[in-house]
Amino acid sequence: MSGGIDRIGRIAAVLVGRAVPYTRPGVISAIAKQPVAGRVRVGPLGLENDEQGDTQFHGGADKAVHLYSSAHYAAWRDELGGLPVLAAPGAFGENLAVEGVTERNVCIGDRWRVGSCVLEISQGRQPCWKLNDRFEAADMARRLQDTLRTGWYCRVLTDGEIGAGDEIALLARPYPDWPIARMMDVLYRPCLDATTLAAVLALPLVPGWRTLIERRLASGCVEDWDKRLNGPPR
Question: What is the pTM (predicted TM-score) of this model?
Answer without folding.
Answer: 0.95
